[in-house]
Design brief:
Helix content is about 85%, strand content about 0%. α1 (about 5-25) packs antiparallel against α2 and α2 (about 30-55) packs parallel to α7. It has helices spanning about 5-25, 30-55, 60-85, 100-120, 125-130, 130-145, 150-170, 180-205, 210-219. It is built from 9 helices and no strands. With about 220 residues, the protein is mostly helical. The longest helix is centred in the first third of the chain and has 29 residues, at about 60-85. The protein has one domain (about 5-219).
Length: about 220
């Protein structure tokens, strides 16, 4: 792969990766959030595959394939099962409306670029130039965790956060060892499976998974 082609494809994949995170803030349908999460998982695998092709690394290519299967296939499938079991089509009204959420996403993206500027200046390679995108997705994931009221929406925020951390690791360290990425991915899968059980129990016991309503029950 030529350097020019590598840079163009890397920028395109990084842009789509960030756009998926912004789309989660924009959409209210839970099924659409899961689809965007699956698309983001595919873009994360693409980022790793581009790194592998550029470096000629077979191990990193295996990591990219594993990330694609898990984050674009397995985890979204688990979330779809939770969604089907809950019978909920739309997320509850978030604590911050859509317009304000999109403005916050823009501000968080600018913050990510400002925070990562010293790193980019230190090693101005094409991959390092895309690091602010990974940090922006981390910040957006935190924002989703704070502002969403449904348990499933917060699971999506948690996975956005994990995807952002993984993208940052791929871009800054020229790839993550296969054993490390496999261990982290399995931990995330276990956490999502546990959350699936908890959401199902909440739905059965309380008839919903709105966290604000559960706090009222506690009070």
């Amino acid at each position: 792969m030529s350097t020019t082609g590598y840079v163009q494809l890397l920028d395109l994949a990084a842009g789509a990766f960030l756009l998926c995170a912004v789309g989660v803030l924009w959409r209210r349908e839970l099924a659409a959030m899961v689809r965007l999460l699956a698309a983001q998982g595919a873009m994360l695998a693409t980022l790793a595959a581009l790194q592998a092709a550029h470096q000629g690394s077979g191990e990193l290519l295996a990591v990219a394939a594993g990330v694609g299967v898990l984050k674009a296939g397995v985890l979204p499938a688990v979330l779809r099962r939770v969604l089907a079991a809950s019978g909920e089509a739309r997320a509850a009204e978030p604590r911050v409306n859509v317009a304000a959420s999109l403005l916050t996403a823009a501000a968080l993206s600018l913050l990510a670029y400002a925070v990562s500027h010293p790193l980019v200046a230190l090693a101005p390679s094409p991959a390092i130039h895309a690091v602010p995108v990974g940090l922006a997705v981390v910040f957006i994931g935190f924002f989703v965790l704070v502002t969403r009221r449904r348990a499933l929406s917060q699971v999506v925020g948690f996975l956005l956060l994990d995807n952002g951390i993984a993208a940052t690791a791929f871009l800054t360290t020229a790839g993550v060892p296969l054993v490390v990425e496999l261990a982290v991915s399995l931990d995330v899968l276990l956490a999502v499976l546990v959350l699936q059980v908890l959401v199902a129990r909440m739905q059965t016991t309380f008839g919903g998974a709105d966290l604000d309503e559960l706090r009222e029950l506690r009070d």
